[in-house]
Design brief:
Layout (H helix, E strand, L loop, with lengths): L1 H11 L3 H24 L5 H19 L3 H11 L4 H18 L4 H8 L4 H10 L12 H9 L7 H10 L6 H6 L7 H10 L7 H9 L4 H13 L6 H9 L6 H10 L1 H10 L5 H11 L2 H13 L6 H11 L4 H4 L5 H18 L15 H4 L3 H4 L4 E2 L2 E2 L16 H15 L11 H19 L1
Antiparallel strand pairs: 1-2
Helix pairs in contact: 2-3, 2-5, 3-5, 4-5, 5-6, 5-7, 7-9, 8-9, 9-11, 11-13, 12-13, 14-15, 15-16, 15-17, 15-24, 16-17, 17-19, 18-21
Length: 444
């Protein structure tokens, strides 16, 4: 009787090969979703968490199949192409990292030219740590050592060393600064580790004056990782260029001199509206929010994600009337006005008697605009501390705004923070937890 039941049950269960196929299919789809969401700059961290957690669990499940999973993936790589092959390469690299596969370096050498991002992410995001503060970067050390014989892998090895803060490679990386071919990636890796060489400022100045967009972008990456490496004068020079690659210079400058930079941005006729929204959100001045609310109220339809970021970050709330579709313009304007006035009254910022019906004008809404100009708001309250913690609001804002908050944290806290808004979510969540804990300890 028992054997009959077991036979019946085994007939209903899918074979192990079928389970492995299903696991790999799900993992490939999760990676494709992950890439799509990471590249959509208006997606938030809470949404990115979904494919990341799926990938973590599916990768660990695939690793349990051992050699079978490797053979299955290798077979698929021979037939796939396009985004599905990119996803399969990512999974193959991640599986090698997770399993401690000695073939990792050779796999990276095989795929890095066509699928650099997949190789980089697979090595950067894994292995899944056994605990909150545990981690293993042995595979990055191995890749760095392997790159001495396969120089084409050196850019990835250097990028990984900086992203994962592999300080035991710092001395070897520092020696590469004398080689013009590797100087830029070496400076960036060391800066991300918080170990920027003394002449990094000079290197940045030369890069900013270069006609090469790649050099300017490298300089911006260096500044964003550790804003201490650049002087205010160099920063003004960078932001004056007004190139798309220098948006980070505006954001860093806004963290250093919020009022002056906001006024300069608001008076500019060439600065892009999205960047102005970011600067207004970071600086948190009421006149900036009022001007943004005026623009939002005058635009039909729901608010954009960057507009939502500003309202969430500065006023601490996002009215449903502003984000729903179809959108009632009058209801949206009224909700924004009520939120703004409530925030002002809660903070004891006096408003005019007819502030609820007047035009969206700073002088007509605020009773004493000059006094209010010096007050910065964050999360619906006056900003009283120099370095706002990376709290739960970071989960809700877009990738674009979250990257600005990481830059703000590095700038005002005076340390390196080589965290990317496209990084694996568990590492971003850990950074938020550490930030809140550090701020709580400081307050106590």
């Amino acid at each position: 009787m028992i054997s009959t039941k077991v036979a019946s049950l085994s007939h209903r269960l899918p074979p192990l090969a079928g389970l492995l196929d299903d696991t790999l299919d799900q993992a490939i789809r999760a990676r494709q979703r992950r890439v799509m969401m990471a590249d959509n700059l208006v997606v938030n961290l809470a949404a990115l968490r979904v494919p990341d957690r799926s990938l973590d669990s599916l990768l660990q499940a695939a690793a349990m199949y051992g050699r079978d999973a490797v053979l299955q993936l290798d077979s698929r790589l021979a037939t796939l192409n396009g985004p599905r092959k990119e996803a399969a390469v990512f999974l193959r690299i991640a599986l090698a990292v997770q399993s401690g596969d000695p073939a990792l370096c050779q796999l990276a050498a095989t795929f890095h030219t066509e699928f650099r991002r997949a190789v980089l992410d697979g090595c950067a995001f894994y292995p899944v740590p056994g605990g909150t503060f545990s981690g293993n970067d042995d595979h990055i050390v191995q890749l760095f050592s392997f790159s001495s014989t396969v120089p084409a892998l050196r850019p990835i090895a250097l990028a990984l060393a900086g992203m994962r803060d592999v300080k035991r490679l710092a001395a070897e990386i520092d020696a590469l600064r004398d080689d013009p071919q590797w100087a830029g990636p070496a400076y960036l890796a060391l800066t991300r580790m918080g170990a920027a060489p003394p002449d990094t400022s000079n290197f940045i100045e030369d890069a900013l004056q270069s006609v090469s967009p790649a050099q300017v972008a490298l300089a911006m990456d260096l500044i964003a990782a550790d804003p201490r490496v650049i002087s205010n004068e160099q920063l003004l020079q960078a932001s004056a260029r007004m190139d798309a690659d220098t948006d980070n210079a505006w954001l860093i400058a806004a963290c250093r001199a919020p009022r002056a930079v906001y006024e300069r941005a608001a008076a500019s006729t060439s600065i892009a509206y999205p960047l102005l929204l970011q600067i207004s959100a970071l600086t948190g001045y009421l006149d900036g929010v009022i001007r943004a609310c005026h623009a939002i109220a005058a635009t039909p339809g729901p608010i954009t994600q960057l507009e939502a970021d500003l309202l969430t970050l500065v006023l601490g709330e996002l009215p449903v009337e502003a984000r729903c579709a179809p959108n009632d313009g009058h209801a949206k304007s009224l909700a924004l006005r009520n939120l703004l006035l409530r925030t002002c009254r809660n903070a004891h910022v006096p408003v005019c008697n007819d502030a609820d019906i007047c035009a969206w004008n700073v002088d007509e809404i605020l009773a004493n605009p000059q006094a209010a100009y010096g007050i910065r708001f964050r999360n619906g309250a006056p900003l009283t501390q120099q370095v706002p913690p990376l709290n739960s609001v970071v989960f809700e804002v877009s990738h674009t705004m979250r990257q600005a908050l990481y830059i703000e944290r590095a700038t005002t806290a005076g340390h390196a923070l080589a965290l990317s808004a496209k990084d694996v979510t568990r590492r971003q969540e850990l950074a938020c937890m550490i930030s809140e804990f550090a701020d709580a300890m400081t307050e106590n």
